[in-house]
Amino acid sequence: MKHYTLLLVAGLTTAGLVALMAPTRGHADGEPAAPYVTEIPQGYREWKWISSAHEAGNLNSLGALLGNDVAFNAFRDGKLPYPDGSILAALHYRNVPSDENNKIFGQVQSFVPGAPTNIQFMVKDSKKYAATGGWGFGHFADGKPGAAAFMKSCFPCHEKAQATDLVFTRYAP
Amino acid sequence: MKHYTLLLVAGLTTAGLVALMAPTRGHADGEPAAPYVTEIPQGYREWKWISSAHEAGNLNSLGALLGNDVAFNAFRDGKLPYPDGSILAALHYRNVPSDENNKIFGQVQSFVPGAPTNIQFMVKDSKKYAATGGWGFGHFADGKPGAAAFMKSCFPCHEKAQATDLVFTRYAP
């Protein structure tokens, strides 16, 4: 466990150094690449629950937003903007009927998380992620980060939630 | 805060003593009353997330199951039956569309927790709750516990989930 932790920290540090040392690469459109989250934050599955959400339609998703202590406390206390160090984890799953529950209830009423689809993160660091509103966005499917081109779509959408510091989710009391 | 905590602990202790001292009262049908959970467990809102669920139909509910550390660890590790000390909290809310999210997405797709409806608890104590499978059931709306007659309906339904120690919810990985 300790060995694994050290490896991961080393990995993060190396990534940080590489990011600092690497020249900013231009995109096809001439814009410099904004940094995004390329490593899954440790321990996120044990963070506190902020809210659940169901996205119908093509997404057909059921999941939860979890937050580390910094983020959770800010949500609970209604503190905006979110302080540096806040990390949000959105865990998404297929929205599927629960056959076993429905059998007991005698009707199709119960929908639960099915196969995991992706995990998305928002990491608040107003310096590192200044180009994207102070938030670093992350998207992981099967443990692999989203491609840079895909990651460019996060900020323009979240930017619309200005009143809540780019966060769509509200705290469920 | 300290004052409030002490009051609450005193309240719980008094309730415990009263429960120990009071003679078992017979019901109209002659059955002794099985004990149920009459005090909201402290700190439940900061427990860990086990899963989310949406109940359609008349319930029209969206919520989450949280667990204290004993319960969460057992869920995560697939340990059955749940050890004494496990406590589960099911937080239920109206399932409502999010107008602000849908405006941004350009379609009605996003459903989120609306007004809280009730919080339900399951407390594992194989001695205290021996009459109901080792679980004490609790139901609170507006902070008030469910009536004894209502509470009698919990165990007969949960008893159907024998294979998972009377718990319907599965861990979302």
Q: How would you explain this protein's 3D organization?
A:
The structure is a homodimer of 173-residue chains. Chain A is of the alpha+beta class and 173 residues long. Chain A has one domain (34-164): 3-Layer(bba) Sandwich (Chalcone isomerase), CATH 3.50.70.20. In chain A, 26% of the residues lie in helices and 29% in strands. Chain A has five helices and six strands; from the N terminus they run αββαβαβββαα. Chain A has helices spanning 2-21, 69-77, 99-105, 148-151, 154-158; strands spanning 48-55, 61-67, 87-97, 110-124, 135-141, 144-145. In chain A, strands 1-2-3-4-5-6 form a six-stranded antiparallel beta sheet. Residues 1-27 of chain A have low confidence and may be disordered. The A-B interface holds A 45-49, 51-57, 59, 62-64, 66, 72, 76, 91, 93, 95, 98, 100-101, 104, 107-113, 116, 157, 160-161, 168-170, 172-173 and B 45-49, 51-57, 59, 62-64, 66, 72, 76, 91, 93, 95, 98, 100-101, 104, 107-113, 116, 157, 160-161, 168-170, 172-173. Strand 1 (48-55) of chain A pairs antiparallel with strand 4 of chain B, so a sheet runs across the interface.
